[in-house]
From TrEMBL:
Pfam family, one: Acid_phosphat_B
Signal sequence interval, chain numbering: 1-26
Family: Belongs to the APS1/VSP family.
Record-linked NCBIfam families: plant-AP
UniProt entry keywords in alphabetical sequence: Glycoprotein, Signal, Storage protein
SUPFAM superfamilies found in the cross-reference section: HAD-like
The species this protein was found in: Xanthoceras sorbifolium
InterPro entries, sorted: Acid_phosphat_B-like (IPR005519), Acid_phosphatase_pln (IPR010028), APS1/VSP (IPR014403), HAD-like_sf (IPR036412), HAD_sf (IPR023214)
UniProt-recorded name of the protein: Acid phosphatase 1
Summary of the function given for this chain in its UniProt record: May function as somatic storage protein during early seedling development.
Length: 260
């Protein structure tokens, strides 16, 4: 009698279990979109999103690279992708440059930033865990005073094309003239940056100014001298924002630090 009662109950329970299990399985692909995250747990996916947000200026005033992105940023900077990204941007710049018809008045100007635009600090930042460590002004000063920053090859070719094409190339940097003037000139010369029109650095009067305010003032002075600023290239948004940014601006990648 007991067995006869239990049999249909068992069958009902088994049916309910199978029904619930099959529904849960069928829902899984659409329900859990993270079913296909990479074997690193999605770390590099996060870091790619972070870097994209940094480059698009959606993440601002960040002080350090997220620690979990150390290997990602290292691989990006020295594994070839950074170089390919810069080369693609320089290709875009050159196709724009080739459309410009220069005047013969010698007033066609182009602005290039220096650090991590013309010359690279990636070897310094390797010792700072590619930006996972906080900014170290005295460490950076000691590095820059060695005058050993290597040229960024694609930007050096761009520089040469601009100079040969007849542009007045203005190198505009947040570096301080008194401390870094001579070593920066030497470093640029050794790396092949020869033939620029001016190297404009911060003077005592610029102390304490934000990069945007300082660089805007420099560009304003150039405009007042009647220069036409055809292009402006920098690795920081603060190189390109503010007044008189130039006819076109080009942002080079830099996932290692942010200059406000
Ligand atoms: Mg820079």
């Amino acid at each position: 009698m007991f067995k006869a009662v239990m049999q249909p109950i068992r069958e009902l329970l088994l049916f309910l279990f199978l029904a619930i299990f099959s529904k849960a399985t069928a829902m899984k692909p659409g329900y859990d979109s993270r079913a296909s995250v990479p074997s690193d747990g999605g770390g590099s996916s996060y870091c790619l999103s972070w870097r994209l947000a940094v480059e698009a200026n959606n993440v601002r005033a960040w002080r350090t690279v997220p620690t979990q992105c150390l290997r990602y940023v290292e691989s990006y900077m020295i594994g070839g992708q950074y170089d390919r990204d810069v080369e693609l941007i320089v290709d875009q710049i050159l196709s724009y440059v080739n459309e410009i018809v220069l005047s013969d008045d010698g007033m066609d100007a182009w602005i290039l930033d220096i650090d991590d635009t013309c010359i690279s600090n990636v070897f310094y930042y390797r010792g700072k865990r590619y930006g996972c460590d906080p900014y170290d002004p005295s460490g950076f000063k000691a590095w820059a005073l060695k005058g050993g920053c290597p040229a960024i090859p694609a930007v050096l070719s761009l520089f040469n094309e601009l100079v040969e094409g007849g542009f007045k190339v203005m190198l505009v940097t947040g570096r301080d003239e008194q401390t870094f003037g001579q070593i920066t000139r030497d470093n640029l010369y050794k790396q092949g940056f020869i033939g620029y029109d001016r190297l404009i650095m911060r003077t005592a009067a610029d102390k304490g100014k934000s990069a945007v305010a300082y660089k805007s003032e420099i560009r304003k002075k150039l405009m007042e001298e009647d220069y036409r600023i055809w292009g402006n290239v920098g690795d920081q948004w603060s190189d390109l924002q503010g007044e008189y940014p130039g006819n076109r601006t080009f942002k080079l990648p830099n996932p290692m630090y942010f200059v406000p």
